[in-house]
Every structure is written in C-alpha cells, then in structure tokens.
Amino acid sequence: MRIPFKRSLLLVVLLLLLIPIGKVWAQGPLVRAVLFYSPSCPHCHEVMTEHIPTISDQYGDDLQIVVVNTAVEGGALLFQATLEMFDVPPERRGVPMLVIGDQVLVGSIEIPERFPDLVQEGFDQGGLDWPAIPGLIEALPPELTGPVTGEVTPDPTDVPEPTAEIVPTDTPFPTIDDPEQDSLSRWWAATKFRIMLDPAGNILALVVLAGMVISVIGIVVLLLTKRPSPTPRWVTWALPVLSLVGIIIASYLSYIEITQETAFCGPVGDCNSVQHSSYAKLFGVVPIGLLGLAGYVAILVAWYVSQKTTGPIQSYAVLILMGMTFFGTTFSIYLTYLEPFVIGATCMWCVLSAVIMTSQMWLMLPPTLEILEAPREEITE
Q: Start-end ranges of CATH 1.20.1440.130 in the chain?
C-alpha cells in the first residue's frame, strides 16, 4: 500500500552528501541501501559507527547508503511506508533497520551478519538499485537517482543547489533529516512515531504509567498525613496471592528473555519487541524477568515473616514489605516509561506485573500506618 506523502517530504535534503557535488563517478555497478535509525537508539549508533563503515571502506563509492532519521516527520513517513511495503511483522518493526533490495535486516546482530553477503550478491548480479520504498526517490537529490550500472558523469552546472544547510553528523553517509526542527519538535515527532508503532499497547502503558506516578505520590502523602485504621483481613491474604501471580509472570518472562523464544502476547501489545530489546536486561547482563522473580519471592518471604512473628521482627518485616513494594513500583515506572517512549512497543505481561506491584504497595499502606503510629516501645520490645 502506498502512503500519501506530504509535500514537505519532497523538500527533505541530505545533510551529508555521499560524494562532493560535481565529482565524477567513474566506477562500475552500484549497490544501494537504506538505513533507518533513531538518535536515541544505542544499537543504531553501534551499527552506524562500527559495522557499516567497515563494509563501506571495502567498496568505497560503489556502495551507496542513505541514513534516514525516523525521529523527524519525513523519516517517520518513509519508515512507515517501508513497514507496509515489505509487510514487516510487528515483532521486527524497530530500528536500526536496513533495507537492501527486497531484504529487510533489523538489529545490531542481523545487520552486520547478513549485510556484507547481500552487498556482494548485489555486485555479482551487476548492481542493486534503491529499495522500492514509496517516496524514497522523491526525497533523494538527482545525483543519487542515476542508473546503478555504467559510467555516470554529472555536469556540475546541472546539479541543483542544496535547499538546506549541510550539517555534519557522526555518520559518513547521506542523512535524510530536517535541520530546521528544534530539539523539542524532534522529541515530540519521535515520541509520536514510537507510540504509533503499537498504539493500543502504548496508550494502555501510558495510562498505567500515569496511575503508578499518582500512586507513588499518593502513598508518600498518606504516609505523612493519614491516621491509621484497622487492616482488613482480606488485605492480609491478597498480598501473597498477588505475589504468586507475579512469580508466574516473572518466571515466564525470564524464560523468554533467556531463551529468546517467541512470547505469547495476546491481541494487544508487542511483547517480543520488548523482551528482545536491549532493555530486557539490567546492565546488559541480568534479565529483568529474573529481577522481578527475585522481588516477588522476597515479598512473599517477608509477608510470611510478618504473619508468623510478633514484636520488632514483625514490625520490621512490615516496613521492609512497604519498602520493597514502593521500590518495585518506582522501578516499574521506569520500565513502563521505556516501552512507549523509547522502545515503541508494550509488553502486556510487563504492564500486568507493574499493576500487581502497585497494588501490593497500596495493600501495605494500612499495616505500615499502624506500625508508624505505634509507640516506639511497642516496636522495639
């Protein structure tokens, strides 16, 4: 399906030219590719600064790569057109994404593994033109739209003047960008783009995120101002039940993160994009699922201690429970923020775990208030 592109896309120019304007190309066949990236994506930076330059040095000007910034409107439109043109499945709709011929490569592992062979295949078959992305040719200057075979010698007097300032970037390749957009506009464009990659899931994540932020603020205010009231018995038993559900979810996510298997997501969300992202591991080492599993087990142990002991041990167990659930909720805020604003996809299992942790924090409010209001002698005796 061809997306109707705005006229502004036709004015998008390259921030860096592949070769100086007017230079004579006297090489043989050309191979052309398009790399989509986001400025906030660490894997994109790795591909652009470590992997792509290596193969570019090997083939020189015969390999032409255009780098498209998906954080600007024109780049986002091209990216969306690419997804639809090549029918990219939801779990692979992320950056960095490199398109060469009819092949779509995604991620900092697949791109360096497959791109060199695909480039060589392109040269072996006499050249490979730009991918059939709707709107791409219109966004390129004339000197990058010539034939991929034979000698091309553009006349310097026929080359149009650039319509925007040429701005250096960290990549030696042409970059489709919009230099007139300020930082706030770029951030907003990138945010809208990521949210619309998984609109239903990301909107739900935003609602849960707002609820968690309000809950954390509310808990702090109530701990400072609210008078204690008797803790309902159902509250006491709801906490371990929620912990058991959390353990099941965290165990499943740990399995997915460790084995890299495909997760069952249901009709809403894109769990696989989240679980296979770099943010699925703390410091790139510890799977977030394992961290959640340890947290739920610790909460269950602390709850058991609070039920089977009296005096100061029981009091400290209650306070530790409040501390763990409060920390778990604040950490869940960070993880939930990453989904719509950074990853562009939402894992429903992760959102459910965040809701469970927030609920446990609220359940711990009544017994915590009782401990805080009790005379110091009762706590320490």
A: 198-380
